[in-house]
Design brief:
By secondary structure, the chain is α/β, with parallel strands linked by helices. It is 36% helix and 14% strand. It folds into two domains: 9-124, Spore Coat Polysaccharide Biosynthesis Protein SpsA, Chain A (Alpha-Beta Complex); 127-169, no CATH class.
């Protein structure tokens, strides 16, 4: 759905460690066909996290991108990713928030579609089904296979039978 307006968006991406396609995945968000303001908010716990090297490369590749990096080691319980997100939230400048893991890459109209769906009456949250693009190696391929042949069919079945209204993430 094409949005009627293009409100400012903050894309929140918790990072940790180096991943095979990290720079490519992050770049896909900076290459959006979205005319509204977009803030990219990246967070890590450790100032020596190798993911920060990818963010520095991203800044060089996309100098026009509004990139904010938060390094904050505070923890709020056992889930480090959620703690990372909590640490980033005070730095979000826009009310419309898009959360995406570091291993997510998107097409150029991703934000347009998300915002278009959010503008529909009664919609306050949008989620996207995803497919796996594994890193090289046996274990990443096995994990991708589980996504394709167990997770996705379960989602489709739950939706078709009216048993689920999932939110992924």
């Amino acid at each position: 759905t094409e949005p009627a307006s293009f409100p400012p968006v903050t894309v929140v991406k918790p990072l940790h460690g180096s991943e095979w396609a990290l720079l490519s995945n992050l770049s896909s968000f900076c290459e959006q066909n979205y005319p509204g303001p977009v803030q990219f908010l990246f967070g890590v716990h450790d100032p020596a996290d190798p993911a920060l090297q990818a963010v520095e490369s991203l800044k060089r590749l996309h100098p026009q991108a509004d990139i904010t990096v938060i390094v904050d080691a505070r923890l709020y319980g056992p889930n480090r990713k959620i703690s990372n997100i909590i640490n980033m939230m005070p730095h979000a400048r826009h009310d419309l928030l898009v959360f995406a893991d570091s291993d997510v890459g998107v097409g150029p109209d991703y934000l347009r579609h998300i915002v278009g769906e959010l503008e529909k009456p009664g919609v306050g949250l949008v989620t996207c089904v995803y497919r796996a693009q594994p890193d090289p190696g046996f274990w990443p391929r096995l994990s991708a296979t589980a996504t394709h042949y167990q997770f996705l069919p379960g989602v489709v079945t739950g939706l078709a039978l009216g048993l689920a209204r999932p939110c992924f993430g």
